[in-house]
Amino acid sequence: MANRNFTLGIEQARTLDQQDILSKFKDRFYPLSGNKIYMDGNSLGLASKDAEQALLKVMEVWKNEGILIWNADNGHYFNYGKNLGARVGKLLNAEANEVMITANTTLNIHQAIATFWKPTKERYKILVDDLNFPTDRYAIDSQIALKGMCIDEVIKIVSSQDGVFIDEQAVIEAMTEDVAVILLPSVLYRSSQLLDMERLTKEAHKRDIYIGFDLCHSIGAVAHDFKTVQPDFAIWCNYKYLSAGPGSTAGIYINQKHFDKQVGLAGWFGNKDETQFQLKHQFDQALDITAYQTGTPNIFSMAPLEGVMNIYEEAGMANVRAKSLNLTAYMMYLIEERLGVYGYSYNNETEDSKRGGHVALVHDEAYRICLALKQHNIIPDYREPNVIRLAPIALYNSYEEVYKLIDALELIGKNQEWNNFSNERAIVI
């Protein structure tokens, strides 16, 4: 871990908060009822006043304009996905025309695989890891089945040796001549491992393999640089660190060098604007990221993102990343110093360059500890089989909140409070 000269005691937490240049943004977010401490930001970020205002603005335009909402503000809402994509693209250091806000994560995986995976006799395999979020595999397996091919023959899995981290060298060694496409997470949803996307992309391209990344657990927490990395595609959701609301419309990145490809899943909003309303039965594909839209944009599930982007642009992604790293480093320090005696540890990288935006706290009673934390007015995030995901969000969590979280975990450990709760799983925790 980088030496940040942390010390025990709440005084340092309060000093760090006083020095925090992002602390002013906390007031732009709504606190939970009862002023609970929220550490679940990598499953659903808190609602912001900016997001609310953007959503209410859309309501006003609809109320006043009806069908003419599509013409309002020089077609702002008609081109909403592309306009928002250009702003989100700045978080990736991508070109403005390479990012589209559209559909959901799983459908965008379908779109990317359908576009880039064109199997031949010699090159047909899709390379994945065994730790990625399951929806990525569901989509890939479906695409394979749609082509009438055998999933087990097409999928090539790089297995983790410890069930926690991905070995990047093993991924590179698996890039054999029969591999056509690779899909990997940028950050692992359990262990917070941040992959070296630039290294993996360069190695894939040396072998003429397309490579894409699932950014769900990194976008808004990690400052990506796609002008350097140059992946072929990427997909993500916007409701985690970006706090765009439950089920908010997702995002897709396509490297502009691939705009000449026939899009895998065509729909009328992927048609050229000039001919879209001629309603011909022949698809006239747009020549940029617009082609990757399918149906009419879900404006209400996109509007909150417009508000949130105001906050990100004011805060600066570099500042967000710096505080995120410092918050998680501080949390790990306190875990090491105060919680080990109670059976707690963490399964994530300590090096800043290899860590995403959350800490994977490990305990044999992780599930019931999550329930106990809620009794302490702290909202965590559980992942099977033994991980308490703790995501201190740079824009609205404080160092003092991290300290109070550790206080609660220590008390739960001392008193074994998990014994007060059942191991029976709830639908969502």
From TrEMBL:
Functional note: Catalyzes the cleavage of L-kynurenine (L-Kyn) and L-3-hydroxykynurenine (L-3OHKyn) into anthranilic acid (AA) and 3-hydroxyanthranilic acid (3-OHAA), respectively.
Catalytic activity: 3-hydroxy-L-kynurenine + H2O = 3-hydroxyanthranilate + L-alanine + H(+); L-kynurenine + H2O = anthranilate + L-alanine + H(+)
Gene name per UniProt: kynU
Classification lineage: Bacteria, Pseudomonadati, Bacteroidota, Flavobacteriia, Flavobacteriales
Location of N6-(pyridoxal phosphate)lysine modifications: 240
Enzyme nomenclature, EC number: 3.7.1.3
Cofactor dependence: pyridoxal 5'-phosphate
Top-level taxon of the source organism: Bacteria
UniProt source species: Myroides marinus
Protein name: Kynureninase
One Pfam family matching this protein: KYNU_C
One MF term in the entry's GO annotations: pyridoxal phosphate binding
